[in-house]
Amino acid sequence: MTPRGKNFAILALAASLFFIPILWPDEFYLNVIISTYLHIILAVSLNMVIKTGKLSIAHAAFMGIGGYTSALAVLRLGFPYLLALPVSGLMGAAIALLVGRLLLKLQGVYFVLVTFAFGEVVRLFFVNLVNPFGGPTGIINIPPPQITVLPGMTITILSKASYYYLVLAVMLITLFVIRRIYQSSIGKAMDCTRETEHLAEFTGINTFQHKMFAFAAGGFFAGLAGSLFAHYYRYISPESFTFWESVNLIVINVVGGMGGITGPILGAIFLVPLPEFLRGFVEYQRVLYGLILILTLWFMPSGMLGVLNKIAEGREARKARKETRP
Amino acid sequence: MGDTLLPQVIINGVTLGTNYILMALGFTMIFGVLRIVNFAHGEFYMLGAFLVLTAIVKLEIGYFLAAVIAVISIGLLGFLAEEVIFRKFRDKELEGMIMALGLSILMQNLGLVAWGPYDLSIPPVFTGVLKMGSMFYPVERLMVVLLSFLLMAGFYLFLKRTKLGLAIQAIALDTEIARVQGIRINRLYPLAFAIGTGLAAAAGAVIGPLFQLNPWMGIMPQVKAFIVVILGGIGSIPGAFLGGLILGVAESFVSTYASKAIADMLGFILVIGSLLFRPSGLFGHSQVTR
Amino acid sequence: MTPMLQVEGLSKRFGGLMAVNQVTFSVGQGEILGTIGPNGAGKTTLLNLISNLYIPHAGKILYQGKNIIGQPPYQIAKTGLVRTFQSTVSYGESTVWENMMRAQLGYHFLGLGPEFLMTRAVREGKKAQGEKAENLLRFLGLETLRDSQAKSLPYGYQKLLGLAIALAGDPRLLMLDEPAAGLNHDERLHLMSAIQKINENGVTMILVEHDMKVIMGLCHRILVLNYGQLIAMGAPAEIQRNAEVIKAYLGEDLDLA
Fold this sequence. Notes:
The complex is a heterotrimer of chains A (326), B (290) and C (257). Chain A is an all-alpha fold and 326 residues long. In chain A, 75% of the residues lie in helices and 3% in strands. Chain A contains 16 helices and two strands. In chain A, strand 1 and strand 2 (153-156) form a beta hairpin. In chain A, helix 8 packs antiparallel against helix 11. The two termini of chain A are 26 Å apart. Chain B is mostly helical. Chain B contains eleven helices and two strands. The chains are: A mainly alpha (326), B mainly alpha (290), C alpha/beta (257). The A-B interface holds A 55, 102-103, 105-110, 112-114, 116-118, 120-121, 124-125, 127-128, 197, 247, 250-251, 254, 283-284, 286-287, 289-291, 293-294, 297-298, 301 and B 37, 85, 88, 93-95, 97-99, 101-110, 112-113, 223, 226-227, 230, 261-262, 264-265, 268-269, 271-272, 275-276, 279, 288-290.
């Protein structure tokens, strides 16, 4: 497919998503899809951090930071939602910049371990500070987003369908921005940083800057997701942003494949609805989840995306052979 | 009250510390020798405890025999795990770590399927309370500390006095040099992993009777093992000893004189500080930053 | 004329070992300086110090008259001081062409904003980089291999690709870390003529090498290290006759002639 053809296909796909609540107004399915979209925002933004060679298990912590910021901004400071949302993102980015300066100096598994410790410190922070975070019980009665479209005309995003459009909009913006980053020299520099860091550094690439940028941008989008999460479920607690959440985002990346943004999207579409449709077998759900991770690492290290690419390559090769046959 | 509080706090700290050390020893060996961050270490601990319970209940044998059976079985399991699963990731630290994570999730939930979510307990082995001056100390706790010390001593002797132990230490120090000296790395990796997991299972068998058993009981000890190993230095045995002791006593103090909340955070803050400012820990080798 | 590089009293300690001990020398513009010494003499450490991979305990490094100690490596590369690595020569998974484009990334990066927006300056820069990539590949005779994956190339060509990558930033001082290691006779000749051509284009070079044929055939001057210390420096003919140098290499299987 030509680049222009590809862009057109993507736009068509994105446009078709607008029709889902109309064609499929079932509340249960909309809920699953909204959850999937939230996970896509989180998984793709984590993918960007991983793209610089840093495997972070603190991503859920930044989501939590965004969630609490948004809830408190609206409840305590009276922010309108359209302000609380970007502020949540900026808070995630700000804290990422602050701690990234130190954390990003660590390599390999040590970075993973320090992000684990950082994530736990953030969670314990929320658990222990009853004022203003509500301690272990968290914050309840978070109001739904109220968006002032025109002076005097305010929409309250209460129904699942309306929330769907809000999350869809944020997700599409996230995907557009990150895709753009990947296509630009920034994305290429990130690849260089991940693959062969000293070669990158010694050909003039400021690898530290790229790692900081990825980490901060990751924190920003995770913060946005946190805000959306908080005002959708109308309740947040430290339990929503644990280490296991962060692990889940990594699993989505591993199972889906980490090349580009398609991988985590595939991973999320596969893994997020899974528990919903295995409602009857709760215990076996998690066993299956662990098995999927292990089997993916063992047989399909490049994830679902890798498998799809191989199939595409196979098709290309067969076509080429047919064409060169006498 | 002030008279007896301080010694009590110290004793509690030391008791806590020995628990931590036991977990940390196996974990640091696996990390130091195989460079695997064994996220499933807590699950081997959990399985150890559950196997003891199952052996006592189903096979109707005594505690000590059950413990031995449990440790050997888990050791075998660990041997197989390295030989079959982790061998593929020997040069890929990050993938190996994620694989261990997958194993952890799998084991926790298989445990859930096998034993259910409700707390179970191993019938108490030792009863009674020891009175030392004006302090009271449950005999059970004392035995746990004693048994832990025996295990630690045994492990230490193994490392320093046996050929196998020395070979394992050599691999931890420098894999290339060990290979050149003729040490059969392929043979020793699964063995080292088996010993590490065996230690975790032993910890589970020893400490298990003190607490309730459930499929998630390994998570906290695992986290503590992380903290101790990072503080003490990865791959360092004396580091695990000292780190475990320091963490146990520090937590006991902070928990008593400040609050449990801060005690919980303490470990992680120490980890972050250690990784950033003294990455090789108290005794380890510096391989952490460029 | 200011020397391209001046190193004064450079020292680096690892634990109890002085890896580099009070080394002083200078490199003139347009020179090819060879650095030799027995195994463990400190040659690679010296290279790592000059390219700021390590921080020295003592001494000064003056590049074009300015002290560069403490500057991050990417910045030094941008000012024209480029080095190669023995082990990681290129981006193995990418094609030769992609390698050349990646090699220029750092030097022409216009900033996070403009690159994200893909401004006209960025797009025109990309076109210029494409031309440069083509020129560099031609210069080293690699243009027919542009779609081959780097790690599948024969070793000799991989080394040439490493040179091409190093040239992507128009270096003024190029430091090569054992470029001839692992090359066969023909590949070595090819490499030597490439280095010659690069030098003829005005690039000053420092060559860390074990291969005496390469050193003797190319270098204007040679610097000899032993146990971290500079034991001799001069023209190739002098070095070959130097008693200290011969003594240092005693026991090593080396043919200085």
